[in-house]
Amino acid sequence: MSLRTVARDDLKNAARSYVVLGVVGVFAALVALVFVSERNIYPDPYRTLFDVSFMTFLVFPLFVAPLSYLAVAGDRESGVVKYVLGLPNSRLSYVLGKFASRASVTLGAVVVALLVGFVVALATFENAPNLGRFATFAGVSALYGVSLTGLFVGVSAATRRRSRAMLGVFGAYFLLVPFWFGFLPIVNIGTVLDAVATTFGTTVTESTRSFVNALSPATAYLYATEPVYSGVTDQYPQLAGTFGGESSRIEAQLWFNVLTMAAWGALGLLAGYASFRRSELG
């Protein structure tokens, strides 16, 4: 069996899963709901894309998680992995095949959701949606989703049990999204930085704090959506407040945010494979 065969077989099984169909359908419904609810609030669909991006960075990982956490751990607990690896197939092609199939589902969810949003915007908004802005938004969102898929499949590959994989994946979500973004007022990345700085008798500069905040794939995703609003950031205060800052900062550069998202997915998958390669499957 090759990487392609593993991915094809896994994708066929995923296509028959109610979980997969539910994830794609519910995410598309949520995106459509955002557009429907704002059709009489903003004349421009790109302003609604801004709100969709915040929903995506916070909620979408929770849709990617059930698509990914059982990718390898589920097969290991059931014993299926011993049969698959008993065929002419390497552990690397197995893990990459699992990632490819789950990433395909993630991409499908993004494409379907944005197509639904585009149709709703075309039918209900005062100004017609810009296809280029929607395509750019879909591309950045797809990269974010694939990055999370790589990270979560890596967690799955590093664990033997379904329960541990689930805890690992949702722990990673908690760390990289609510904790890192600062949703928790008492314990977050900012308070950790302050505690470390106090220990060493120093302070954390705003530039350092901003750079560390940008190292989360979720924050990088939000920054990476800036090209979607090229030329129109002054039309709405929320856009100007988010993307109207100093553009020379490294965390404001598109290449840096794309690299950050890609790095989380690639390194997470690599770490998971390294653990899986050394583990006993019996």
From TrEMBL:
The GO terms this record gives for MF are: ABC-type transporter activity
- Tell me a GO cellular component: plasma membrane
Q: Which controlled-vocabulary keywords does the entry list?
A: Membrane, Transmembrane, Transmembrane helix
Residues that span the membrane, as ranges: 18-37, 49-72, 105-125, 131-153, 165-187, 254-276
Which top-rank group of organisms is this from? Archaea
Recorded hits in Pfam families, A to Z, give: ABC2_membrane_2
Q: What is this protein called?
A: ABC transporter permease
